[in-house]
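For the sake of transparency, this paper describes our internal protein records without simplification. The tokens are whole numbers drawn from a learned vocabulary of local backbone shapes. One such record is reproduced below, unchanged from the form in which we store it.

. . .
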Amino acid sequence: MSFVVETRGLTKRFGRRPHASTAVEGVSLHVGEGQVYGLLGPNGAGKSTTLKMLCGMLRPTGGSIMFEGRPWQRDDLYRIGSLIETPPLYPNLTAAENLDVRCTLLGIPRGRIAETLEAVGLAHTGRKRAGQFSMGMKQRLGIALALIGRPSLLVLDEPTNGLDPMGIEELRRLVRALPEQGITVVVSSHILAEVSHMADHVGIIANGRLAYEGALREGTDLEALFMDVCRRAAGVDGGRADRSADAGMGGMHGVRSAYGTHGAPGTAGAKGGAR
């Protein structure tokens, strides 16, 4: 499988030695072309820091990032769309005008504005200014800004923030349709049920390290798997967690883990199984 994004020993420390704090250490992700990859982890585990390094918002302390088979460089940002933390909106402009600014800055054809707004459900907002949008509408406009350049990789950090149940369902449909348009997605969320409905592969970061990575199959209890992997990473109730995690990993194929490889090597997981 060709990887759109691959990290090798990715590390980020803040501060200067000997008092530097390590946020991410030795993370090696493998995001295949056409995947919806769910990046999971407890609060403070290093998910957002990892995504910010992928998007050029933070410089890695160590390790490397490969994008589409070659070392990551700044020009790759034209091929990466992202929504991390607060959507970068101009509150005094309409949705279409916000996209028009992005098109002007990046040299993107303005003909894409209408279709992008339609894709995120904002085609009928008219002259309403973004500052008057609900939180969910602002989130969708942020996704539109990330999609307008037709990226090969879309990075979403907690994209369901502020969305009501209908908005979450619409976002789910949008994300699942993106691989058919040639867009690979990395989505981070603390809502495991949403990731299980969207993703076909998952990675679990715990204590700044990638503790688990594999294909998500139908019937996998993602919550149980997540809890067991995090307990193992923390060294809590190790024996029981090891046994139950191995049982939970029976629903995952070709797993890479900081604690060894589980499942049948070379066996592809059923893409699109658990939705």
Remarks:
- The chain is about 30% helix and 25% strand.
